[in-house]
Amino acid sequence: MKIRYSDLIFDSIVDGPSLRTVLFTQGCSHHCPGCHNMKTWSTEGGELVEVDELIEKILAQRSRALTFSGGEPFEQPTQCTLIAKELKKHQFNLWAYSGYTYEQILSDPSKLELLQHIDVLVDGRFELAKKSLTLQFKGSSNQRIIDVQKSLKHNEIVLYKLLEKTEFRRKREGIYI
């Protein structure tokens, strides 16, 4: 099976906690005004590759964390589910960004299957009027960061608890954050 994707980046620190790989899927029907990744909207753009080939590239990295972004990963749910299932065998932490809400995903069986393998979902369309550069891991204040596994277990939305930013020091290397 093939997946259409725009980019695969490694060692991201902005698409979820820790160093992670980010898969930018190709194709998005939301077309949010102010989208920072408009090149991923077209379903004809990007590159078409075998899912297994993409999995190999992801597994070759040290990171055991992946974020599905886009485009819209839930518009290629079968392909993304195959990737998620395989990565979970290797204890990956999986995040997904979606313009769909959690409730919309729950009501669609093909999207729900992917959701069941995701640890954290950042849901909802990007809203330019609610954009803030101070938000952690989301672009606009209407979006929610949802702990998917707890939400599915409790049958209600449970928000993911973000760790507070702490000062990090490594004197030997002269690194201060």
Give a topology summary.
Blueprint: E1 2-12, E2 20-25, E3 47-50, H1 51-59, E4 65-69, H2 77-88, E5 93-97, H3 102-106, H4 109-115, E6 120-123, E7 144-147, H5 148-154, E8 169-170, E9 175-176
Helix pairs in contact: 1-2, 2-4
Structural description of this entry:
By secondary structure, the chain is an alpha/beta fold. The chain has five helices and nine strands, in the order βββαβαβααββαββ. It has helices spanning 51-59, 77-88, 102-106, 109-115, 148-154, and strands at 2-12, 20-25, 47-50, 65-69, 93-97, 120-123, 144-147, 169-170, 175-176. It is globular.
Give the strand order, joined by hyphens, for the main sheet. 3-1-2-4-5-6-7
Continuous helix count: 5
Give the N-terminus to C-terminus distance in angstroms.
43 Å
Label the CATH architecture: Alpha-Beta Barrel
The rough form would be described as globular
Assign a percent range to the helix content. Answer: 10-25%
What is the CATH class name?
Alpha Beta
Number of strands: 9
Structural class: alpha/beta
**Segments where pLDDT lies below 50 for 5+ residues?**
none
Number of domains: 1
The main sheet comes to: 7 strands, mixed
Based on CA atoms alone, the radius of gyration comes out at 16 Å
Give, in order, the helices and strands. EEEHEHEHHEEHEE
CATH topology: TIM Barrel
> CATH superfamily assignment?
Aldolase class I
Strand content: 15-25%
Question: Averaging pLDDT over every residue, what do you get?
Answer: 94
